[in-house]
Fold these 2 entries.
Entry 1:
Amino acid sequence: MNVRRITNGAAFGHGRAGPWVSAALAVSLGLSGPGCGPKDDEIHAFVHDWEASVSAADYRVQPPDTLEISSAQAPELDGEIQTIRQDGKVTLRLVGEVKVAGLTPVEISRKLESLLSQYYVEPHVSVRVSTAGSKRFYVFGEVAQEGAFPYTGRDTLLNALAASRPTFIAAKEMIKVIRPSHEPDKRHVMVIDAYSMMEHGKLEQNVLLQEGDIVYVPPTVIGWMGLRLRELLFPLIPVGQAYTTPANMMAAYDVYHDDDD
């Protein structure tokens, strides 16, 4: 991570810095953390996109995920699309109710094959998650769309940023990926220079997200200053509107009557 892109004092003039700049620099340094990039143990806590196995095979379904079932030998199930009910079950022709919550698609396939073996010789069943509705990752900060996003098992940091769309004041060099946990030794925070990924194709830190991960996009120093200024001026906005709104209405009234004349 190139922190100097944000903290270079030359960007704010020479000599003395005002209190706003000093505070902003302190916040910038606090957000970026020590050093110029993630440490090895931090990186090892996350998985890169190219290092991961096909994680969809490890995805454990829960309500209200939607499953798509294919089976050339069993037309009763072939093409079935089922949303998992709150009790964790789906109802299928020929085999009836089947509890699938907590299983991977591969485990569901094997379970259905076992049930179908009463009717078919060596049936083959394929199950995939067509809609992942039970798991989420989260994006907050300086993005156009904050909040929860569906977790598919193949979501990378770049996927998350593309979906949430960082704003013009986003500090892309200091993106935080937070892996929360109730246990402190399993809680990890990684600061990533996403600018290098997006501008130069450096994908070494394009980590694979896990369910529940939080991506935080901080503002740039100038952006932080602007947000604080807007926060300070917010109580004065209604006062200003009280004076400007009647004046605008009178101006519109005059224009309207001038047009009539």
Entry 2:
Amino acid sequence: MDVFPSLNTVVLISSDVKVIDWCRHALEPVFSVRVVDSVRPDSYALSAFPNPVLIDTAQCGGAAEKICIDIARRSRILFLVKSDSAFSLSHIQRYHKSCIPFPCDSDLLRTVVKRHLPEANDIERIFKKPVRSFSRKVDISGFEKFAGSSKIVTDLKRRLAEVAPKDLSVLFLGESGTGKTFAAKLLHDNSSRKDKSFISVEMSSVSESLAESELFGTVPGAYTGAVKRSGRFAKANGGTLFLDEIGDVPLFLQPKLLRVLDTGTYRSVGSDAERRIDFRLICATNADLHKMMQKGRFRSDLYYRIAGCMITFPPLRRHLEDIDEIASSFLEERNIALSDRAREKLMSYDWPGNVRQLINCLKKACMFSKGEMIYPEDINF
């Protein structure tokens, strides 16, 4: 953990992957979440900073009162209390701390955390002198093609820009149609591998019987009619491999994928020869991988391997103010504009299919429009 985190940082103390995923999904579009896996005195590098600290009460054991005393003077404490928890609320009440039921509505969690964020003068008061901001400016110019200027989209582009130069696995979370595939290509284009291949595989469209040969390739004689064929791993060598809908990777294939990621080697179907491979992996899903792990449909070891960094993409209904910019970027090259009433109609809809649905809607509107302007009657959801 950084010794000097930004004021927008929230510290989460938990080792429960369900709690961690839920908090990240709810908070990371707006806040920076730092995870600490246990409550230890040496965990609090924030000793002089009043950043919010979310504590999973399952981590407290019998030391709840001591924890309240230890960190009461240095941080704003929020306790996450599970419905089946035996945690006593008396310590929370005694030390005037706040508790949040787990799970709760994501908007509620964001609202409560926002109320507990420190002000810049909190730090000045601690040090008794002006302190420069420790937040680092990030150049997001490489992600300007990702349309949107709202705070939630700007924060998303900033997160993408931070991760792009770091050669680690990335997991994109979010509903279908929120721009994960487009962002994966932008991430590649802004990485050190930009001059190499970007290979995209939509796992939901690959049949289970062909999935292994699609990824690993085949050699002659592997099965009846098999020919030498390079798989997606070989094609992505040196570059980036994007596995969309990673939750659809067949269960039998998951340990083989994990082995590739762990060893950097693979074998084509029908071959005993080990081949070395080097690629950056980006995965995306709109599924709840944690529920899939609980049901035995997704391996937990693979999950932890691909989730080197998780980035959540917001649904369009959470940033409707970006619709005008998204629509303009699409319509400009077609020399068509939106009328004010058409714009209002677009912004009054909740877009369950997100940006993909918006673009398809605009394509149809262009077909129905009779001139250089789109009117409400041209728009059909």
